[in-house]
Amino acid sequence: MSYKIKLTSFENASLLRKLSILYFLMSIIPIAFLYFLYLQLVDYGRIIINEERFSSIFFLVVIGVAVGYVVMRSIIMSIIDITRENRDALKELLGPEKIKALSEDSSNEIAILAKSFNEITNRLEENIRNLELAKRTLHSVLAKVGEGISSMDNIDSFLSLILETVTEALSGRKGVLLLRDEKREDLYVKSVYGKAHDKSKQIRVDLNDDMFKEIVSSRQPVVIQSVPHNGSPLQPLLRSPLLCAPLLLHDQVLGVIIISDRMTDEPFDEEERNLLHNLALQTAVAVENSRLNEDAEKTYFETISALAMAVEAKDPYSRGHSERVANYAVVIAQEMGMSQEDVIMLRDAAKLHDLGKIGVVDKILKKPGPLTPQEMEMMKKHPEIGEGIIKPIRSLKKLCDLIRHHHEKLDGTGYPDGLTGDQLHPLVRILQVSDIYDALTTNRPYRDPFTSQQAIDTLKSMKDQVDLKVVETLERVVH
User: Fold this and answer.
1) Given 60, 77, 110, which residue is the final one in a domain?
2) For position 356, which CATH number holds?
3) What CA–CA distance (Å, rounded) separates 262 from 283?
4) Does 268 share its domain with 328?
5) How many angstroms separate the CA atoms of 462 and 445, rounded?
6) Per the domain annotation, does 208 fall within a domain?
């Protein structure tokens, strides 16, 4: 077996080696001096100290040097033991490989210890910077979430905000939030952050899909290093690695949130998993609350719709009027390219637009002939009454403007506010035309119903009062 002798400079030598060399050099001086003195005395023939006494003194000097060495060595060994213990502790913090790398340049225990402490200081400074960054990120997340909660009109905008914020906080380029469809027992894409195609929200995934099966069964955040190539419709939205967490509420999975395409090469750590897990739990609560609110709002709407139908039931000539107006308004809005949200809002407003007639006495509602000026003033109150009925219900507040202004006209001759031109919202214009068209094409006690063309021609003659673009659109969809 051959051994390699490692040569190191005196500066980088170990403490023990330095002590041995220095002490050896320091010990030679008194011993050499005594020996030199002895030779001088012998040469000059003036021996003051006999040989026996000199030997005793020389022996005592050597013993003193040896004792000094042993004492100093024990002190140095104590220091070395302390540094070794500190080094072992540092090895747990920095890792054996880092300690080995620091030891390659020097075998000096103090030097290694100093370098180790310097490395720890650098890491502490880096951790402090990371903590500051995490603090700022957390504040940003909380600020965005708080802003979303305070300004949120529906769960969709809130979920989009949550997904965007957590994706950026976890250094992801893409994020996907899926919700569970209890009827179909599958997952559908609710929100996407990052690059997505137009049909992303039409994607549905089976709960038995390999990837989601693991997430749902684990009930914990899962890191997936590579996206399974199993033909999943989600593949275009995902890129490895993935951090996934289930939306849990009372041990029931309401959905899954996925962070994809990490911008750094560092793996997702435990803190990031916990962050996504906790956020997923809170999101699940928000989703469930939204569903409960939707059920309550649906009940409110159905109750008020029933009330509106009860008002129409008083007058056989207006029975079914609101439903027909809603149908006309929907097809006009769709033909004009309105958003689905606007179409739904217009449909709901149309169904409730005459709700305020519940505050008008029956003798006016059921009067077979024209109304007197006083009776007309009473009738003109019904848009305001209808607005007052739905205003306290948060989910129906967005319908207030449409219900209040459905009898306004572009030239300012309408009621109750006499709005003109651009003051009339596009949805109000559609509701206004649909209301007039149905009134013209249905039987009244004082006249026969108009044909569809007669009603369209009448609306066109009202060019100063109604929006002709809406009238032309109505003509296309009813003919």
Assistant:
1) 110
2) 1.10.3210.10
3) 22
4) no
5) 23
6) yes
Q: What is the rounded distance in angstroms from the CA atom of residue 227 to the CA atom of residue 261?
A: 11
Each residue of 208-222: pLDDT tens digit?
777 777 788 888 888
Q: Which residues pair with 260 in a beta bridge?
A: 174, 242
Per-residue pLDDT tens over the stretch 84-98: 676 666 666 556 665
Identify whether residues 334 and 227 lie together within a single domain.
Answer: no
CB 410 within 8 A of CB 465: yes
CA dist list (Å): 114 to 19, 106, 110, 118: 19, 11, 6, 6
| Average pLDDT of the segment spanning 328-348 | 93
Provide the number of structural domains found in the chain: 3
Between CA 195 and CA 197 the distance in angstroms is: 7
For tokens 């469930």, name the residue.
288
Extended strands (E) in 194-344: 204-206, 222-224, 242-249, 252-262
Residues facing 280 on adjacent strands: none
Rounded Cα–Cα distance for residues 20 and 73 (Å): 8
For residue 424, what are the domain limits?
A: 314-478
> What pLDDT shows up at residue 151?
45
Cβ neighbours of residue 283 closer than 8 Å, sequence gap 6 or more: 159, 162, 177, 247, 255, 257
| Residue from 97, 125, 101 nearest 112 by CA | 101
User: Per-residue pLDDT tens for 131-180?
Assistant: 676 666 656 655 555 555 444 456 777 788 888 888 888 888 888 898 88
CA–CA–CA angle 249, 296, 385 (5° rounding): 155
Non-local (6+) Cβ contacts of 272 within 8 A are 170, 243
- Structure-token pair, residue 128: 């402090």
Instruction: With respect to residue 66, please indicate whether it lies within any of the assigned structural domains.
Output: yes
Going from the C-alpha of 406 to that of each of 204, 247, 350, 410, 450, the distances in angstroms are 40, 43, 9, 11, 21
Query: Does residue 64 lie within any of the structural domains?
Result: yes
pLDDT above 70 coverage of the chain, percent: 65
